[in-house]
Amino acid sequence: MPRTKPQAEKLAAAVALQPAAWGADFRAQQPAASNPGTAAVLDEQCRWERRPLPQGVLASLSRYSEIPGSAGKGELKVTAAVTVHATVLDADEQLATTLEEPLRCREQQVRSDEWISGLMSTGTPYGQGSNTYSDDQVVEIGSYLTGGSKQTYYWYVTRLGTVTVAVSVKGGKGYSNDELNKHASHATTTMLSRVEFELGGEK
């Protein structure tokens, strides 16, 4: 596992999905990635914002992609994020916080014109349910609200050792829940495989 910030930054950059890894129709959002040296934090007013890396986090990177609206379908927005922690306990605390946040903030402001609401979360540690691929996972489901539209929202946060990978999918008009879930599952599986490869778990 990475022990220094340069090692952690290199790993995060190798794992976080670029648009093409989501599928041929995806392109980069603007901005395409988070500011270096920052992490996403849900503040006391239930607003998501970027803050300097907290203690226990070596690196964090988010990349934002989308399929533009066309042919009767709305815009589909996705995020792939990687956070490298100093210890397993630090990483585990992120999963615990993610699991509890919907209880504190049933509605959360993502950007100035974007909200998520009606959130429910469930945790699946290794060995429970169908989780045979990670140390722990939290899945959050709710509604994505923007411009008078209400669509399905998925957020997967998955841990392997000191590394957490997170995937968010904000639904758009014309996309089924099955399509959204497939995008989230594919992105999660791809990033977990990249973590294993980068750390020498696969040859």
Structural class: alpha+beta
Instruction: Kindly provide the radius of gyration, computed on alpha-carbon positions and rounded to a whole number of angstroms.
Output: 16 Å
**Proportion of beta-strand residues:** 35-45%
CATH superfamily: PknH-like extracellular domain
Give the N-to-C terminal Cα separation: 16 Å
Q: How many domains, in number, for the residues?
A: 1
Note the total helix count.
4
Largest sheet: 8 strands, antiparallel
Q: H/E series, N to C?
A: HHEEEEEHEEEEEH
The counted number of beta strands is: 10
The fold-level CATH name is Protein Transport Mog1p, Chain A
**Estimated helix fraction:** 25-40%
Molecular structure report:
- The chain is of the alpha+beta class and 203 residues long.
- It has a single domain (5-198), classed as 3-Layer(aba) Sandwich (Protein Transport Mog1p, Chain A).
- It is built from 4 helices and 10 strands.
- It has helices at residues 5-15, 19-22, 88-104, 177-198, and strands at residues 27-33, 38-42, 48-52, 57-67, 76-85, 108-111, 114-123, 136-146, 149-160, 163-170.
- The protein has an 8-stranded antiparallel β-sheet with strand order 1-4-5-10-9-8-7-6, with helices on both faces. It has a two-stranded antiparallel sheet with strand order 2-3.
- Strand 2 and strand 3 form a beta hairpin.
- The radius of gyration is 16 Å and the shape is globular.
- The two termini are 16 Å apart.
